[in-house]
Amino acid sequence: MDNEALKIPKKKKLVSLWVESEGQVIASVFLQMESDRHSGEETPQEIFNQPETFMVVLNEDPQEARFYHVARIIRIEYHEDKQPDAAGEMTELPCRLTLRDGSEVEGTIREFLQPEHRRLYDYINKSELRFIKLYESEDQVILVNKDHIVRVLPL
After folding, report:
1. Are residues 55 and 15 in the same domain?
2. Higher confidence at residue 40 or residue 70?
3. What b/e sequence results for 91-104 when a residue is b if at least 16 CB atoms lie within 10 Å of its CB, and e otherwise?
């Protein structure tokens, strides 16, 4: 039997993870070539917001596979290759987040939201999202684990 035929093609994406008790970890995550939720490839936000308890990454140094408990990942930083397609009116919510470890991250949430749910309060309380997505710049993204957020300030 050909084991290659059983493999799901995936793309490696370099990210910087901030993990409890380890600090910064440079690793790659594995994205499906086609997302189940939209056209195009899967995004880091999709994989970190899945219900699985553990996430597999390929650590850069030493080069090894690791399984991290998703609740212990504080934030993920990465370069976004392609901006989302503008298929409607995008809401922009600039904010500053203070995390449990005392660090602060600042950026802008950019999402297509229903008019009645365009407040920062509504977005951060979306129950299906464990990680919220902030744009630090046009192509630099930070995913922040809501369990590690102490305070949110609109800017």
Report:
1. yes
2. 70
3. bebebebebeeeee
Least confident of 29-38, 53-62, 69-78: 29-38
| CATH number, position 96 | 2.30.30.100
Note if the bond before 44 is cis, omega within 30 degrees: no
pLDDT tens profile 79-102: 998 765 656 688 999 999 999 999
Nearest to 123 by CA among 98, 90, 79: 90
Q: Domain end: 78, 107, 133, which one?
A: 78
Q: Per the domain annotation, does 83 fall within a domain? A: no
Residues 6+ apart with CB under 8 A from 84: 90, 110, 112
| Radius of gyration, CA atoms only, the chain | 16
- Is residue 84 in a domain? no
pLDDT in tens, 108-117: 999 888 888 8
Helix, coil or strand: residue 70:
helix
Residue range(s) defining the domain that contains residue 33 = 10-78
Residue that is last in its domain, among 25, 56, 78: 78
